Amino acid sequence: MEYFTEQAPTHAECIRKIKEKYGDNAKILMRKTVRIGGFLGLFTRDGVEMTGIVSNEPLRYATDPLKNVRKPLDLEEEKRKILAVANPKMDPTLQTVLQEVRSLKEKLESTQIQSKPADEHPNLLKISELLYSNDFSHNYTLSIQNRIKRDFSLEALEDFDALQSQVVEWIGESINVYQEPNSNTKPRVLILVGPTGVGKTTTIAKLAALYGVVGMNGLNPLSVRMITIDNYRIAAKQQIETYGNIMQIPVSCVETYEDLRKTIAMYAQEVDLVLVDTIGKSPRDAVKLAEMKEILNACGSTAEVHLAMAASTKFSDIKEIMQQYEPFNYRSIIVTKLDETTRVGNMISALAERGKTVSFITNGQKVPQDIERATAVRFLINLEGFRINRQKIEEKFAYATRDVL
Predict the structure, then answer these.
(1) For the stretch 220-230, what's the b/e string if a residue is b when 16 or more beta carbons lie within 10 angstroms of its beta carbon?
(2) pLDDT at residue 215 above 70?
(3) Are the CB atoms for 100 and 29 separated by under 8 Å?
(4) Fold type of domain 183-374
(5) Which intervals hold domain AAA+ ATPase (predicted)?
(6) pLDDT interval class at 287 (50, 70, 90)
């Protein structure tokens, strides 16, 4: 099996090139618009890029003309074929193809959401379009559609305001907020893990300010310490030490399991909360993640692990990150960089589908202002296109009134 990528100014010309080079056994998996031509980045123009595979098996033509009709592309089958040939982690080209197949699957699912069967009520279609525009997943949107069909009569569907108000409440009910444990164990250890670039170190500093300077929920500030095991990233140590000096919160840097164990033991009697900053790792780097987990085991079984993820992350990537960090037994999600996106359906869908809670939200770089406890209300007011009754949802979800700093 051979993989190819071809570019051309038009769709027809790209198809012609593929047929000339690879023959009738070529199968196109992905098509996208790209910029081609030009000089030094100037005078480029729109073009078409197609990626696909060439099967080594010769085409067989049956006598039955219906058997020659091209069957719809089975994406899962194509992925299995690719995986059967080689390990995608060993071949960057295969990894790219698999990623494009996943993206194509998402687009096909989105198209299914937006399709308009003749028997669907117009208001049901409008709700589906709103959910899609907010980046809710196919399965999440389908579950809302089914619930509407089950709970709303045809007459009730005519009242669109009432319909969307109910959908907003259902979305809010699907958001589970993390409840901090009531434990007398000292010190309480909170570990923050996550991919590179999601703002873990800044979030650790915000949490330190929230608990150790401002005081959570009107309570007196706690005795807080910060520990970092990120001694690889340039200026990482200096960054967290700078935050610590400003807030007068001590910072320790460790590299090994034994160093971390001794440091936490040293804080056992005098400190209320220890915040541990970790190394940003790609969720695909299983070896490095395992090494980091081995070090973090020094924090003990009562340590709380929270997974930090940027709000702008694609739904498919969110699911993959969640899956790859499962060995850390993380208790909740901290959603970072909410200010960098206008859509929250991707995060709400992933949290609901994997049954995860959300603990904090960050929405800027300021320490400690740009952090708050996560609430259903905070997500709902970020929905685009929905008419939000702020008073109603705050009354509905009063159990989780947000604590804005």
Answers:
(1) eebbbbbbbbb
(2) yes
(3) yes
(4) Rossmann fold (3.40.50)
(5) 186-387
(6) confident
Choice between 72 and 337, residue whose per-residue pLDDT is larger: 337
Segments making up each domain of the chain, as ranges: 2-108, 113-176, 183-374
pLDDT (0 to 100) of residue 140: 95
Classify burial at 239, counting beta carbons within 10 Å of its beta carbon; exposed 0-12, middle 13-18, buried 19 or more: middle
Question: Residue 227 is which amino acid?
Answer: I
